[in-house]
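Pilot study result, target chain (134 residues):
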Amino acid sequence: MTQDFFQVGSETFIAVTAGGSVFYFVKGALRSSSKGCRLASGVEEVITNGPVVCRWAAWFALLISIETVMVDVRRVHDPWNNAAAWGGANALFAVNRGTRAAIREGLKGAAYSVVAGLAVGFVTVLLKSPDSSD
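Predicted structure:
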């Protein structure tokens, strides 16, 4: 269980950091840069937005790690794991602003998880073909 927790978290962090860096590099290279300065503009954009990408990657890695632990402990993969993971990740990222902020952000994260789950379920129902018997 512990190995899965760390492995999933680290893989998620690396993937999100790499994807975010590529996104900001392309954005900097293609947008608002003169023809001869595209490489420098891309690198500058990555350096400028590095803290944003790393914070988002850390939040997402924490989210996935909490969900992995919840699935391992409860032995059930259901929306409660996702809600607890979103709430826990948001609460842990808000601890530095105080207890009330952590509780508020945790509840908001859990609520966002429920809304996102409902939206995915709704879209799944809408996109389901009428001739399938599932």
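One observation from the pilot: Residues 2-30 form the longest helix (29 residues). A full batch analysis is planned for the follow-on phase.
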